[in-house]
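Researcher: Re-running this chain for the archive, since the previous output was lost when a drive failed. Same request as before.
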Amino acid sequence: MTLAQKIQLSITRHIFLAFFTILTPLFSIWMYKVIINGKELVHGNLTTAYNHISSLVTEQTDLLDALASDPILINKNIPFNYKEGLLIPYQNSFDLEVLAITDCKGNIYSKTEGQNRNIYHRDYFQQALKTNQLTMSELLYSNVSKSHVYILCKPLKSNIGMIISSISLDEVSTILNTMLDDSIYNVLINYDGDIISHAYDQNKVHLNIFKKNSFTFDQIDTRKIALGQRVGGYSIDENSALTYSLYTPLKNTPWVLVSKINYNKYLMDEAAVFFISLFIGLFVSGIFAYKLRTNIFSITKPVDNFIEDSRLFLPQSSDDNLINHLNDIMNISRDGMYCSRTHVLNRKYFLLHGNFLMQEHKTRYALLFIDLDNLKQINDNLGHKYGDDVISCFAHQIRTMFDHPDDLIGRYGGDEFIVLTSNFKTTAQLTDKVSQLINQVSGSISNGQHKIDFSTSIGIALNTKANETIITMINHADKAVYQSKREGKACYRFYQDPDILVC
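Model: Regenerated structure tokens:
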């Protein structure tokens, strides 16, 4: 795999990793907003259905309240047969299936219901007699309309009978089916939790909503419902769908209105927009990655070619790891720049770096040409191993003395070293450092049979002209070092400065 391919793969991986790292919290935020929005929709849906059903019920309860106070209807001296005729205009005007008057024995007086019907045994009639309040029946079957109805029963103020009317289950079901979203539906239950009417599945009528096979996160407090409060909670239904249910009692009825949202279905609708946005994001990321990879290939192609060519002289094992391969190349490059024995720059790279420094930094430089005295005698009499050891120690002392980051040290020849430094403020500072080096390098070496003294001679050249080159300074320092050797060695000499000489 080439460098370009590795970089392309890494960039692609990181782009998509960053994309999904950003996507995770965004998805969580989106999910949270969807759940909150769904909950708000349930509240809105419940309010709408509640208002419609309340309007339907209130319309009739207001009518019954008015009729229960009507002077003619509450008059004990007017026959019920006459009173029933007074109700017909109201029945037609409000389009009621049942609107009738009864006596205290439960006998119905109605042109629609007939004269022989008696409801005294009905629970809602008995409750109205007992409480003297408006009551509503359970779901009943009407033989007149052949449909299910609820009966409202209101005692007359004179306590001589009741006014009754009916609410059609079909009307209630129509209201329940009026939903803001197809994932939200309404259910009508009684206070025991039995389903009275369902928005879309009448087969669930008579089932208990609290005893269905579901897992409830929030326990519904029916006592709060009885007190007229809205109560809501999350649950997992029998179809493994997350739902949120909101309960509220309907005034003047034994009903509780329930509005529910099926989040599984709601999420499917909302997810379409999310996944379209996700696809667009992935598509844009893909295009960006492709463009970036193409540009990287053009940039890294020369590097790939260089690495491929380097395989000719690098070990085969370095192919296994690109980093190791590049390290091998760097080591080879370093070996080409530095002297492996002394760890200083070779002549070629010293000249390159020296010229660069002098061109970039127009400051005062000193070029030191340092020659190791008596190396030839050491090599001839003791052997080259001893000579190499002396050179290594010699180079170490130079590196220690000139250790400033801007100091440049190189090996010019076998026993010749050069130093380019600007780390001095006065000539005296420079000569102090040179003198220390001469003292530290002076010594002797022995193989047990022969002992040979060694020292160092140093020539110093200063850049006196603005355009002076590194080669010129080396030549000047070279002349100065030869002068120091002629004058006794173990000393330094400035170029063209016969007054400063320490031996």
